[in-house]
Structures are given as structure tokens and as C-alpha cells.
Amino acid sequence: MPDSIVEVKNVSKIYKRDTMDIPVLQNLSLGVPEGEFLALMGPSGSGKTTLLNLIAGIDRPSSGSINIAGTDISTLSESALAKWRSRHVGFVFQFYNLIPVLTAYENVELPLLLTDLSKADRKKHVETALGVVGLSDRIHHYPKQLSGGQEQRVAIARAIVTDPTIIVADEPTGDLDRKSAEDVLALLEQLNQEFKKTIVMVTHDPAAAEKAHKTRHLDKGELSMN
Amino acid sequence: MKIPLSYSFRSLWTRKLTTFLTIAGVALVAFVFTAVLMLANGIKDTMVATGSDDNAIVLRKSAESETLSIITFDEANTIGTQPEIAVGSDGQPLMTKEVLTIINLRKHGAGPSDLSNVTVRGVTPDGVMLRPQVKLTEGRMFNFGASELIVGNEIADRFDGMEIGKTIKFAGRLWTIVGHFDAGKSGFASDIWGDQNQILQAFHRQAYSSIVMRLRDKKDFSALKTKFESDPRFNDLKIEPEKQFYAEQSETLSNFISILGIVITVIFSFGAMIGAMITMYAAVANRTVEIGTLRALGFQRRSVLGAFLIESLFIALLGAGIGLVCALFLSFLTISTTDFSSFSEIAFGFTMTPSIVISTLVFATLMGFVGGFLPSFRAARLDIVNALRSG
Ligand SMILES: Nc1ncnc2c1ncn2[C@@H]1O[C@H](COP(=O)(O)OP(=O)(O)OP(=O)(O)O)[C@@H](O)[C@H]1O
Ligand SMILES: [Mg+2]
Fold first, then answer.
1. Residue nearest to atom 13 of ligand 1 (CA)
2. The complex's ipTM?
């Protein structure tokens, strides 16, 4: 898979609890071509979140390598990895994970504070991102003044504002009602089709998986094809 | 500092009650700390203002304070012949041979047997002249040769029966109060003054307590001091610049208050620091997912450390600010206490200085830092994945 933007090679992840080893992923390989919208499914505890965290660079594999857009992230130092995440990864969480004391605008601006952009440029980016998710009229609202669906759209704006290489979404519709879930999925689909974003999404929801180009199933730490 | 300050401040604000209580704890400690330093400083000010730059004071070598000093009439006469002493308009040396005694008086509101020591100072006409800070505010000067007294404002304000025209009894005589005087910040404000001769006679004293003299030239002091050290007639006496003498007198009390006060506030401060620590640990525990999110977005560990330390420092500095403002009101207050070197009553004010403000701010910053460091360190050390899972 020479044109894969995400290359997971022979990755194992073993958690250690006390003296017990808990193997979660075993010798797993996965390639995601640029511009793909991939859904990861599988039973609870199968290691979906673990795999997503490894790809997003917030966790490290016990063995194997992870190469994203030409960078072997398993060799980066901790602070280099943090810097890398801020440039290359957009996060969407199940529970949105917005900062409650910051407004929608400030939440979306957060990742830009790690760039060299001027205040005026940041403003442009934030307004564009909030425009894409259709929340231009909620800029100065705090998370608790928004509905769950709106919160998740702010979170998506935060994930795209730095124009990252990949977007990782862990059960992005898991906490939403049907209607809001559809809005969020439509938005992810738009990001993928219109803006050519590579998206890796973990989901339990077959309807969500349907929006993706491809679905991979994870079971007992091993991937199987559709 | 990449994480915006508004994040830290607003997070504090969402925990209004705990934040407020923690600030109050720090404020209390800062207040006591400031008050102690202000008092120690007020004591120094009072004592230093008591002395004058141009005067020298002679005391018995073994005497710790003016009231304990004895200078015989012979010694006094010898001192009077020294050429370094300035000459007054009457052609006589400009010096005052004074006698200090202590009487017991009742403070306003004190019980019938609850008496305080008050210094009565017998002075000569030169004694009045050598103390320009002493000014009559009411009534008149006492007449030399009469059993009359003038009373310092701190005593007039605080003790029973000090009104003009009243008489008080001591040393077997009735003395009439004829005036009140103000002595600025100086310790004379806690004195009662009368004619030196009258007081010597009434108390059957055969010696003076101290001699204060104006020098012809300040530069003569070292020559005079050498003379006191070498001449056998002055063997038992010592001479010091008046200002230095009073400054040294204040040191014991002022140091005692500073040291005791600082020790107590440092002990208190552990309470405030533990309070700040508990508050900050709770903040970290409540915001674990937030911390995980910030780290996932790419904020470094040190940014998280900084954001939480700022919260703790903000609590500490706000507390210090409140403590300082409250302590400032103490400037309007005078308190009186027993001067340990003379065992008589002396009144002091609280004096604020820029260096006290800085000390309090530094002290509070330290409290905030120590209280906030461990919790902030824990926040910075959180594992991202575990922090995100804890939600
Ligand atoms: N930090 C950890 N320490 C120990 N075990 C862990 C840790 N993180 C995950 N695990 C274990 O690894 C396994 C896979 O966890 P993971 O969260 O990846 O599953 P998942 O597929 O995302 O499940 P779900 O669908 O419930 O979200 C689980 O058995 C979990 O208990
Ligand atoms: Mg999961």
C-alpha cells in the first residue's frame, strides 16, 4: 500500500495491569489511503479505541510501527509527538470534550494557539470552521448553552480548524439522538467528499458505518475485512 | 504559556465557593503577616523618632534602659564641663539632666487594681528645647518650681484622670495636670513630664537617670566617646547618639514581635497552603478529561502545569491583596503595650511600607506555589489515554 497516508505495521499493544499482561492488539497491520473514510467496528473491548489512539499519537504501540503521511510517529519524543498531533490530527470524541469554561469560538481557537497564526488569522479560520459546521450564529455560546448535536459540531469545527492530515472520531454519534447523529454524519461525509479529509471513525452504529467508504471489523485484537 | 489565561481564571470562577474560601484562608494569613510586620515597623519608627540626630545621651554603662540608669550629681557636673557640648543663649551648656520614675495609673475601662506603668520624666528647660517634636496641644507648660505636670497625648487619651485641671497623687504629693502635649510618632507621647527638681525631691532621689546634650558639632561625638572610654571619671558611663540609643531600645521589642509573628504566620500558612492544595487537587480530579483533551490537542505537559499553577498563584495573590488592604486599615490604629526594656507603657502605630507590601506578596506567592505545585504536577503527569477514559 504505497499510497497509504496511514500505515500501521505489525502493531501489538499489551496493557500491563499489576503483573498481568493484557494483550489488546496482536500483530495488526492496516493501511488507509489518502482521502478515505474508514469505519472501524467490532464488539466492545475489541481494541477499537486503542487502535484509534495509536493512530492519533496519544498512545504508543508495544511493538510495530505507525507511519502517518511519511512520519514514523512511534519514534517521536513525547513533546515532538504533541507538536505533531497539533498539526496533523483532528479529534472528535464521543462526549465532545469541549472545554466548558470556553465559548464555542474559544474552543475552536484552542488548537490554533499552538500555531504561529496571528489573532486576525485565527479569527478567520475559526469563523470559517464554525461556518462549515453551520454554527456561525452560536459563536459566543458556552457548551452548556448548546444541544448535544451542536456541541459535537463545535467539536468537529475544532477538529478541522488546523486543516489536519487525518480526523479520528471515536463513536462520534454514540451520545446523540437519531436526528443529530444524522447531521453529524452528513457533516463528516461532507468533510470527506468536499474537503478530501481522511477520516478514521470508530462506531457501533451500522447506519454510521454505511456512510463510510469502507468498514473494517476488529475482533479479539485482529482485523478482518468486510 | 499556550493555554489561555482566561481558561485558568474562568475555571476558578466556576468553583466560586471553594475558590472564595481558599482565597479567604490566604487573605487571613497575609493579613496577620502584614500586621505583624507593620507593628514591628511602627515600633521602630516610634523609637527612632524619639531620638534626635544632634543629641547625645549619657547613661550608666550597666543600664539596659533610661529608667534603670543612674548618674551621680558628681558625674553630671563633670560631664557639664566638657567643651564639646554646645552652649545655650544663657551661656550655660545645652544639656538636660533628667530623672525618670515610674508611677501606676489606670487605663480607661481597667479594673480597680489593674494598673499600668507610666513613665514620669523630670526635665529641665533645656530638656524641652532639645525635644522639638514635643508640642503643647492644650493647656500650658508646667511652671518650674511647681508640682505641675504635662501629659503626652497617648497617655492623655488612654488613662483615667488625665484631664487638664485634675490632680494625681504620687510620691506623697498632689500634682496638677496643666497641659497635654503631642510628641509626633516619638516615644515621649507616652511620657508624663514635670520639673526635674520637683521630681527629684518628691522621690528623694540622689541621682539623675540620664543626660541628654546637644553637641557643638556632630563630628565631635567620636572625640567625646573616646574621652568617655578612657577617662576614669566616666568609667561607669556610656555615651551614644540619641537616635541610635532609641533605635537599639526598639530592637528587642521589634525583633521579638517580628520573629514571634513570623513564626506564627508561617505555621498558619501551612493551613492555607494545605487548603490551596486540597482545592487544586479537587480541581485536577474534576477536570481530568479536560486535561486529557488539552494534551490530545497538542498542549505540552508544561503548559498544563503552568495553567494550574497560575490558578493557584491567582488565589494566593488575590488573598494577599485582600489581606494587605485590610491591614492598611490598621494604620489608623494605635495600640499600646509594655516596652520590655523599661517595663512602662508605650504606644505604637502600624506603619505600612513598600517593603512590607513586597514581603507579603512574596510570602503569598510562595504559599500559592507550594500549595499548587503538587496538584499541578499531577495534572501535568496524567497519561492522556487514561485521562480521556476517566470521563
Ligand atoms: N489503560 C488501560 N489499561 C489496561 N487495560 C486497558 C487500558 N485501555 C484499554 N484497556 C483494555 O483493552 C481492551 C480494549 O479496550 P478499547 O477501549 O480499545 O476497546 P473498544 O473496542 O474501544 O471498546 P468499546 O467499544 O467499549 O469502546 C479492553 O479490554 C480494555 O479493558
Ligand atoms: Mg472505545
1. A45
2. 0.95
